[in-house]
Specification:
73% helix, mainly alpha, 0% strand
Length: 273
């Protein structure tokens, strides 16, 4: 009797051994713009109920400041600075204060781990979240600007420039707010940094620059929202210098790119820890 190895029997499970297949690769990461749109929609629906009351607070705060300044400022360039600064302050309240708190709490609670498991680029998370928060500032900023123009007797003809001021100044401030929340070791410190940033936007943006000392003016020039305030304030004149307005908006755009890049780096740094 001959012995035949089991490997060569036709019916044996070991007769034919196919080569072991390599582990299936993960699907490709989502592209930036579709991922950004998905994060934006998710954050917009999530924050709609919780953030609307805070938006009313930001709007009433800015309107209250203008009413108080009405007793000090009569008109002219100082009134233009007060109205423009109070309008951009609504953006600063959300982009600096609320966004710093959100990312600080997200990091402390481990919420970044959820985003880290998704095939979403870090830039999409930062930009989508910042865009969703900035969207809530549009009605409050417009309402503040209209109220201020009526209160101080300023023209309403060029309010359309807010369509550029809100996203550009919002991007610059949102990047800083996100970076504060992601880099702060504790959520309480992130909240403190956001509130300090908003206070700087209040004091350096609403008060007329002509009444500030030279050292304070230098600090004012370092604040990104200053250029949004200047761009908006220049449009109240009878013949605005649109080249200068575009220059101020270009500075806002440049600072926005840098600050959002820093926030994206901070997100990567926080997500891997």
């Amino acid at each position: 009797m001959s012995v035949v190895p089991a490997e060569v029997l036709p019916g044996s499970a070991l007769a034919v051994q196919e080569p072991v297949r390599e582990a299936a690769e993960l699907g490709p990461r989502a592209r930036l713009w579709p991922a950004l749109a998905a994060v934006y929609r998710a954050q917009l629906s999530r924050a709609r109920v919780a953030r609307i009351p805070l938006l009313f607070v930001a709007t009433f705060q800015s309107i209250g400041i203008m009413i108080l300044m009405r007793g000090v400022v009569d008109g002219g360039g100082e009134a233009e600075a007060v109205v423009a600064g109070s309008s951009v302050l609504v953006v600063a309240f959300v982009a600096l204060n609320l966004l710093a708190q959100y990312f600080g709490q997200l990091r402390a609670s481990g919420g970044l781990d959820h985003y880290a498991t998704l095939p979403v680029p870090p830039a999409a998370v930062v930009l989508g979240t910042a865009g969703a928060y900035a969207s809530f500032t549009v009605p409050g900023t417009v309402a503040t600007a209209v109220f201020g123009c009526v209160l101080f007797g300023l023209p309403l003809a060029h309010l359309w420039v807010l369509l550029a001021v809100i996203p550009l100044a919002g991007a610059a401030l949102a990047g800083l707010g996100a970076a504060f929340g992601l880099l702060a070791p504790r959520p309480e410190l992130a909240t403190l940094l956001g509130q300090l940033g908003m206070s700087a936007a209040l004091l350096l943006g609403v008060l007329p620059a002509d009444r500030m000392p030279e050292a304070v003016r230098f600090l004012r020039d370092l604040l990104p929202s200053t250029y949004g305030v200047e761009a908006f304030a220049r449009t109240f004149g009878p013949h605005p210098d649109w080249a200068v307005v575009l220059g101020d908006l270009a500075v806002c755009a440049g600072v926005g790119v840098v600050s959002l890049a820093v926030a994206t780096w901070a997100y990567r740094r926080a997500a891997v820890r």
